[in-house]
Design a protein that fits this description.
Length: 356
């Protein structure tokens, strides 16, 4: 273990002990929470001095699950999994990173804790070096959303390249102005794709700036009909769909109208509610000849991957990808940031400045 000599004994942290309604209403700022001990780090762990974190829906949805929040998560709880900061101490097997080095990544569930000035990061897949040319507040947005976008696209684009000769795959990204969608547009464009996305009128210009070739205003157009028209005008159906809204929506049930036979419909962020689970179960059990799903439905899950984080970091350093930030909040205002996140109308990501 190699610790920094300047690690304090206490830190500022947003904490909660019991959630009666929402996470945001249960939060309180503790100005003297204990700093995790650098002496007890395991060989692959890091103690990171957190400067920025960013919010994801999972940050409030998991703690608000009655059984999980009450019995599984340790108390007091500290929200958030995405982080960017400097290495304060490193376990004996972390020769790849040095004390004082800027890093970013995400924590493994059910661990949270990034909205505190210090956090323990476990596992070599969860944290990588941040290039000098990347701003730390942007690096903080990559952890969950950036990696989700990468993993929901790259493996499927590789399959498409193997299966057929397509110089410019047609990709539809639903909800392109959100945290994951804004990364997905840029990553798909960097791979040479023809990119179509959806958003409301106020974010159309942003989606074009990120690289979308066509943008559908879902508040004014029927999305399925618009996709069908675009497919016809571009010489054939889409090769891949990434749905960042998730769930068994009409977008999936009508996907045979615009998505190629054998192509994947990747569902990111599908609901864990009883109705959501029922709808997804219906997709796999309802026979096609009885008007069941006509295209391959892929429920998406993500897993930390250091190599892919490094690829994303390099793409950001080269200017191919950037983190879209709607607002940076002070740690004191974390509750207000979560209330904004719950609206479902955030453009890009919400970032929290944890330490100076």
């Amino acid at each position: 273990m190699s610790p920094s000599s300047s690690i304090p004994s206490t830190m500022r942290a947003q904490q909660w002990t019991k959630i009666s309604t929402t996470l945001s209403s249960a939060l309180h700022l503790n100005p003297s929470a204990p700093v995790p001990s650098s002496e007890s780090l395991k060989s692959t762990q890091l103690l990171v001095h957190v400067y920025y974190s960013s919010l994801n829906p999972i940050d409030y949805k998991v703690p608000e699950l009655p059984l999980v929040g009450r019995f599984v998560m340790s108390k007091p709880g500290i929200p958030c999994i995405d982080f960017c900061g400097t290495v304060a101490a490193a376990g004996s097997d972390r020769k790849d990173l040095s004390v004082g080095q800027w890093v970013f990544g995400t924590l493994d569930l059910p661990s949270f804790g990034a909205c505190a000035e210090y956090v323990v990061v476990s596992g070599k897949e969860n944290c990588v070096a941040m290039p000098d040319r990347v701003k730390p507040e942007e690096a903080a947005t990559v952890g969950c959303a950036g990696l989700t976008a990468y993993q929901s696209l790259i493996p499927y684009l590789a399959q498409i390249a193997k299966q057929k000769d397509v110089s410019k795959p047609k990709v539809f990204i639903n909800a392109g102005s959100g945290g994951t969608g804004s990364f997905a547009i840029q990553i798909a464009k960097a791979q040479g794709c023809f990119v179509v996305t959806t958003c409301s009128a106020r974010n159309i210009e942003l989606c074009h700036q990120l690289g979308a070739d066509r943008v559908i205003d879902y508040t004014k157009e029927d999305v399925v009909s618009a996709l069908e028209k675009i497919a016809h005008s571009q010489g054939g159906p889409f090769d891949l769909v990434v749905d960042n809204v998730g769930g068994a929506t009409p977008l999936y049930w009508q996907s045979h109208r615009y998505l190629a036979a054998g192509a994947s419909f990747v569902a990111v962020g599908a609901s864990a509610s009883l109705r959501g689970v029922t709808d997804i179960t219906k997709i796999f059990l309802w026979p096609r000849f009885l008007r069941g799903g006509q295209r391959k439905y892929v429920p998406f899950t993500t897993a930390a991957n250091a190599e892919q984080y490094s690829v994303l970091a390099e793409m950001m350093a080269e200017g191919k990808v950037r983190g879209v930030i709607e607002e940076i909040y002070a740690l004191e205002d974390l509750g207000r940031a979560f209330e904004r996140l719950r609206t479902g109308r955030v453009t890009g990501k919400l970032v929290v400045k944890v330490a100076e």
